[in-house]
Amino acid sequence: MSNKNFDNLNELIQGLALNKVQATKLNKAAGNAMRRVVRANLKNQKDTDGKPFQPRKIQKFNLAKNGKISLNKKMFRGASRSLNQDANADGVSVGYSSVAAKILKIHNEGGKVAFRRGSGKYVAYAMPKREFLGWSDSMTSEVRDSIINEYSKLQGAH
Question: How many domains in the chain?
Answer without folding.
Answer: 1
